[in-house]
Amino acid sequence: MNTVSSLLVILGSLGVFLFGMKVMSEAIQKVAGHRLRALMRTMTQNRFLGAFTGFLVTLLIQSSSATTVMVVSFVNAQLLTLVESIGVIMGANLGTTGTFWLVSTLGFKFSLSKIALPIIGIGLPMIFVKKAQIRDFGEFLIGFGILFLGLSFLKDAVPDIKSHPEVLSFIQYYTDHGIFSVLFFFVIGIILTIIVQSSSVAGAITITMAYKGWIDFPSAAAIILGENVGTTITVNLAAIGTSTTAVRSARAHFVFNIIGVLWMLVIFTPFINMVEALIPGKDAEGIPMRMALFHTLFNFLNIALLIGFVPQIAKFVERVVKDKSTDDEGPEKFAYIASPLPHTGELNLAEAENEILRMADLTKTMSKGFTELFENPESKTKKEIEELKKMEELSDQRALEITTYLLRCSAEQLSESSLTKVTGLLRIVSEFEDICDCSYRLILSAERNHRKQYVIPEKARHEVYRFSKTTLEFMDFYRDSLTREVTSKDMKRANELEDEIDSFRKALRKESVSRIQSGGQVKGEILYIDVLNNIEKIGNHSRNILQALRQEA
User: Which domain holds residue 110?
Assistant: First the structure.
């Protein structure tokens, strides 16, 4: 019963540690989420910037697994290329060493109970402040305090080896066997990381065990190597069911870490001796620092050795992971949003924003297709017309996927500004779906007009072309506005375009009614008026998109 009780206390301590890390990570994302999204978009153009981005993001959110899972989803949404993603993943491996330094320097050099509770005490009143940034920073402090409280509990829960010499004799059976001992503890590190699903938590366990004397430094270093490989399992699981490029990105993470382990095993003993020489002393206090240094040097050197071979790693995984055989599915083929959602709600919005840009392109493709079909029906083949009509089903599917994804993002811990942004994006997706519905009806009208050979005067047909050109201009305008902040000047321009479209419709409808009264073909003119009404509705929806971006009612 004593053993069971001790095990539950250890698990509870780990739970507190993990919860503190989660609260701290989410609070950081709330404070700097939009900046991190911009960082992921703008600083991945080459492998060196990508590595720096991966390092910085992981250092802030304190989870290499979350960063790499997010990278896979970004690749799946075509926000990152395979080569760019490998650079980010390399940096993420180095970023995760921040947890080791945090735990080693603060967690084992100070009385944690003396610093944890005061930090929580400072953060507590801050979470009741109205200003969102102060409230979010208060959450960060509370998470920081809970993390060290959990580490304090873990230190107390793991018994000292002096009190349990029989445990040491058990472990000693697996040590001092050269490479076989290293491989044994390497496998232990893989299994430990798979079980806890966090290399940071696995690292905290390893540091505590070494500090308490359960394992020596070489064994702890071997476990760290195993944790580096174990963390890739999460990413490869996340890649199941995603695009071929996303699967390749996950495999590249595994390949990168395995190559690092292989060269480290060759020089393991002299490398361990070098680290011990840099941080001398056999006392327990020095072991956490040596482990942090080993982890950092290993990952840094692995990046330095392999960053020049990123294109070769990309080509290797491309050969290993073959392209999925796909049939010709038309001109508009969108990548599905990744179903695995890492607990980085703020950063996940970047993927949703990218998919919304794709949907904006779809609205223009459909509207432009109608314009060409109505003006010159002979320019479109039957197959091309069918592809345009299928885009309406695609728009419905994309709207459902993006809406579901945004709702899942909103279920995460988001800042107030991001929650407001999600509300605006949901409205924009709905407006895009309505625009695609209008374009679909326009395509059907153009097709029916050609099939029935309705008589519409050449001048009136050309006016529709001019009318449509204005809506296409509006579409370019809202597409551009999706990537920047919408100003009052932009809203003025949007209102002008919408008024222009309204005036155009009224004038053309008036002319159509006059033609009917003068003996024009009634069915053709009714179809013509229906076309005008749908184009005018597209103008209304386009203005609504600008209002949503501006956060206006």
Answer: 2-320
